[in-house]
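Structure in, sequence out. Go:
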């Protein structure tokens, strides 16, 4: 560690694990005096060419003076970082603060010279790019705003590192050297570059786990049974296309195979590479296995062994050590206590899980933190999956167990550009990095649907997940803002996922209903109204309807421009597997094929033979011939005698799907109207979000905002304390720098003071009690308005005293009257889990009791501000409800945009409340405001790429 003479203590928060371009990991940390031997060893492994590029001359070895210089840092003006794998350096970067003339300097000099050196064996892995992100973040933290670098013209790789980073830069050439200067303030381009690199790296790290060329199962029992043997059997029986090895140190030395699988006593004995190791040994032997895997070059681990954080404090520490140890070797982990992973791709066929059967291949990706939920999801999709073509089966499945390393965020990165996944379904017990999840979800949802069930919020054992203070409805609204389809149950997750996987998105909420049951049609109609859809009057084909009648009705509904989706309701026919069922299935299929582009759903009750017809229409099973749909002679599709009444609680039925046209998806069928309509409602809302996401709006620039002035004021105020609520004057000053004018309220501890305040402000005035139990509660009588002169003011003062007590208890203030309008509330808060959130609602007890508040994530765009105003249920009061005067909503939207900018520009602002904001016909008045400040976090989602530490 650093010596006591160093100016700053060792900055442990600069340590980070990062994912490199090829999906492997490395650790970035500050270089200290203890690293002398590592530095010398590292330098010896660098080629002469790379040394020449670094020092501009032959430099075969480091002198003792060099080693001292490169390992002794003050962590302010001189900083060195190293990237390590296996505890050894693979790359270094350093900066030295310099003055305008290039000499060594200290603050307030804000420029530094930066230089890199990357071991040749690790060049091309994106190590230098990752180091640049981290050294730039360190420099900004230490007050450095600009880097300079001198590079030889032939050193194209290093020049590319700088030029591709996305920073604003200048380039010059002098004395045979290219000089690059660039500002360290993040730009839109630099953030885009950083996030694109993050996506590629994390996606490749997951791909290494899901698409391995070879797998070793460590901990395979010699006899059938047990976790390790079960996983081995499942991989073999699924037809894994790569190399498979069984490993157990208890195998006899002469044992060469186990049921045809090559057997070894150690991973080290395996000839050739191993990409993935499934670890199923007792918990006390796992670290030993991890060491063997790391030394053999294994790329990733699935740890199914239990006994970690779920077992208590000792297990929690074992889990942390497991992650640290694996990352030392550049490996990522799924688990521990994991159920496993599945990839159904024909060229992989990996079932490295405890699931005894490989699910049908298809286009749905599944992620579950819980093994039990993962089993439930696989089971339900298997029952609902349909014919043998696997159109609605699974592409990949990950059950992460304790989620010590690989998380849902990583899997989202993989699914984003995975050509085999069209729909992503996730069961999340918690969201460890909500800001990143929201960002990734927004990007993923713009390309493919993302359906999420979030559990009760309990984190996987051993995780220090920040708890949100936001209510469930608010979290749901914020996820929907990011394009996430948020559902409440596993059943809804499967229902919605299957619909989105099989059918096109609806263009709107208009729903046609056709069927042979009037009561089932009416149930569907009512369900549509409940879900906010716009159903057309149900078309009752009567119980005597033929397959041809269904064909004509569905064709007409699909062709109707006033219809965006069709729900077909059906009650069962007489007989099981009859020709009538096959005829109806073909009728619906051919009608949907003739008019593609609109979703079709089927609601059924006890399908009988129709279930087989619907699921078999694209299978290889023998099919019953049927008459051409649409002909007059088609057989009747009659309901059975005593057919049951529609039951909204019907269990799921297996194989209830109807194939759509070739190249399309299956037509999903549901055993209850409510389930079908709820899934359709989610598809409608998601389609609307997709259309709006094309043009999300912009975060406007306001010329009158004084960002630098606000930053200076915040710095001076925080110098007084770590967390503070600003006084009235400071609040007005800070908000004023962002163009938010607050009507000042003058204290009135006595009647004379109230009169003096009124003379200062000018009549008419308002007299308010600001005691906590009366503040913002005009309904309790603690406010007197439109006081036109001193006599009225003194009478009002006396009345308040008689009703509520002494001035000390009331805390009265006098304020200038504002134009009448609608009282509203604007708030911004930094939630520990969700990040910065802007909220809006009407003022008053009624809105609070009803929870009628809308929320958006900061920064808010102009379109989001407009939608925020219109999102609350009481919004009609702002737009002339029942003959009232419409208020100035553009002014309200501008106010919210200014508050959003303030919170986004200054993370030290952790809470802003404007209450009330009186919105008049022209303009608005902010009558009350409070602001709270706190030191910002050292790093946030705009910082350099890093893996989470639990």
């Amino acid at each position: 560690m650093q010596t006591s003479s160093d100016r700053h203590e060792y900055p442990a928060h600069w340590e980070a694990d990062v994912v490199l371009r090829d999906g492997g990991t490395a650790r970035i940390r500050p270089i200290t005096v203890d690293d002398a031997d590592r530095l010398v060893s590292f330098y010896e492994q660098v080629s002469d060419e790379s040394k020449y590029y670094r020092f501009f001359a032959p430099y075969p070895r480091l002198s003792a003076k060099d080693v001292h210089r490169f390992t002794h840092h003050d962590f302010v003006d001189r900083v060195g970082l190293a990237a390590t794998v296996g505890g050894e350096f693979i790359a270094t970067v350093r900066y030295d603060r310099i003055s305008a003339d290039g000499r060594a300097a200290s603050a307030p000099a804000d420029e530094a010279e930066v230089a890199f050196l990357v071991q040749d064996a690790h060049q091309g892995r994106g190590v230098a790019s990752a180091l640049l992100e981290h050294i730039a973040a360190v420099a900004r933290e230490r007050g450095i705003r600009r880097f300079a670098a001198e590079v030889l013209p032939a050193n194209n790789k290093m020049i590319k590192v700088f030029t591709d980073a996305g920073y604003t830069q200048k380039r010059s050439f002098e004395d045979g050297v290219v000089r690059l200067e660039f500002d360290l303030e993040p730009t839109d381009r630099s953030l885009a570059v950083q996030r694109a690199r993050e996506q590629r790296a994390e996606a490749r790290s997951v791909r290494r786990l899901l698409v391995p060329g070879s797998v070793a199962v460590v901990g395979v029992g010699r006899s059938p049974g047990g976790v390790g043997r079960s996983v081995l059997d499942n991989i073999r029986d699924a037809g894994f296309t790569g190399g498979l090895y069984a490993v157990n140190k208890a195998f006899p030395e002469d044992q060469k195979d186990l049921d045809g699988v090559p057997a070894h006593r150690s991973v080290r004995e395996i000839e050739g590479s191993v990409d993935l190791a499934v670890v199923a040994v007792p918990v006390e032997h796992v670290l030993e296995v991890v060491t063997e895997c790391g030394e053999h070059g294994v790329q990733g681990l699935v740890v199914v062994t239990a006994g970690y954080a779920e077992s208590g404090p000792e297990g929690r520490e074992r889990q942390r050590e497991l992650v640290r140890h694996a990352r030392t070797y550049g490996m990522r982990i799924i688990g521990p206590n994991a159920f496993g992973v599945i990839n159904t791709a024909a060229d992989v066929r990996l079932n490295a899980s405890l699931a005894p059967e490989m699910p049908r291949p298809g286009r749905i990706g599944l992620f579950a933190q819980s093994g039990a939920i993962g089993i439930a999801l696989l089971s339900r999709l298997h029952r609902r999956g349909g014919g043998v073509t696997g159109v609605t089966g699974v592409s990949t499945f990950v059950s992460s167990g304790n989620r010590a390393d690989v998380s849902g965020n990583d899997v989202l990165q993989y699914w984003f550009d995975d050509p085999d996944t069209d729909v992503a379904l996730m069961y999340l017990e918690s969201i460890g990095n909500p800001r990143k999840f929201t960002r990734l979800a927004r990007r993923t949802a713009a390309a493919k649907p993302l359906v999420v069930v979030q559990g009760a919020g309990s984190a996987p054992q051993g995780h220090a997940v920040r708890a949100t203070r936001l209510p469930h409805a608010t979290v749901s609204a914020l996820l929907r803002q990011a394009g996430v389809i948020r559902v409440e149950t596993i059943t809804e997750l499967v229902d919605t996922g299957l619909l989105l996987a099989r059918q096109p998105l609806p263009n709107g909420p208009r729903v046609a209903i056709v069927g042979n049951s009037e009561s089932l049609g009416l149930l569907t109609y009512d369900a549509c109204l409940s879900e906010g859809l716009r159903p057309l009057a149900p078309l009752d084909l009567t119980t005597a309807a033929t397959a041809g009648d269904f064909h004509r009705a569905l064709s007409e509904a699909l062709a109707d421009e006033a219809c965006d989706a069709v729900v077909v309701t059906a009650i069962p026919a007489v007989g099981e597997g009859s020709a009538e069922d096959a005829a109806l299935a073909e009728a619906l299929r051919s009608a949907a094929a003739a008019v593609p582009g609109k979703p079709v759903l089927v609601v059924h009750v006890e399908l009988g033979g129709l279930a087989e017809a619907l699921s078999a229409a694209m299978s290889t099973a023998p099919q019953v011939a049927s008459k051409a749909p649409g002909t007059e002679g088609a057989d009747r599709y009659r309901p059975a005698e005593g057919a049951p009444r529609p039951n909204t609680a019907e269990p799921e039925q297996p194989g209830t799907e109807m194939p759509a046209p070739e190249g399309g998806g299956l037509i999903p069928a549901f055993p209850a109207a409510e389930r079908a309509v709820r899934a359709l409602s989610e598809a409608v809302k998601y389609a609307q979000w997709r259309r709006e996401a094309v043009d999300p709006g912009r975060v406007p620039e306001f010329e009158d905002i004084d960002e630098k002035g606000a930053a200076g004021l915040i710095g001076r105020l925080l110098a007084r304390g770590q967390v503070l609520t600003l006084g009235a004057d400071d609040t007005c000053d800070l908000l004023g720098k962002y163009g938010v004018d607050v009507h000042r309220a003058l204290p009135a501890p006595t009647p004379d003071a109230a009169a003096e305040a009124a003379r200062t402000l000018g009549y008419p005035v308002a007299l308010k009690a600001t005691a906590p139990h009366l503040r913002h509660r005009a309904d309790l009588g603690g406010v007197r308005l439109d006081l036109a002169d001193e006599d009225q003011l003194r009478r009002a003062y006396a009345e308040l005293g008689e009703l509520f007590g002494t001035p000390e208890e009331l805390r009265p203030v006098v304020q200038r009257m504002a134009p009448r309008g609608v009282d509203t509330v604007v708030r911004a808060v930094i939630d520990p889990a969700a990040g910065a959130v802007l909220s809006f609602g009407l003022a008053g007890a009624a809105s609070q009791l009803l929870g009628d508040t809308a929320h958006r994530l900061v920064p808010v765009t102009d379109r989001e501000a407009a939608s925020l105003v219109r999102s609350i249920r009481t919004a009609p009061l702002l737009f002339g409800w029942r003959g009232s005067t419409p208020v100035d909503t553009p002014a309200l939207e501008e106010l919210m945009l200014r508050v959003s900018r303030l919170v986004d520009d200054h993370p030290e602002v952790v809470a802003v409340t404007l209450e009330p904001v009186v919105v008049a016909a022209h303009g608005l008045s902010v009558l009350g405001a409070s602001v709270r400040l706190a030191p910002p976090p050292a790093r946030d989602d705009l910082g350099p790429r890093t893996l989470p530490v639990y």
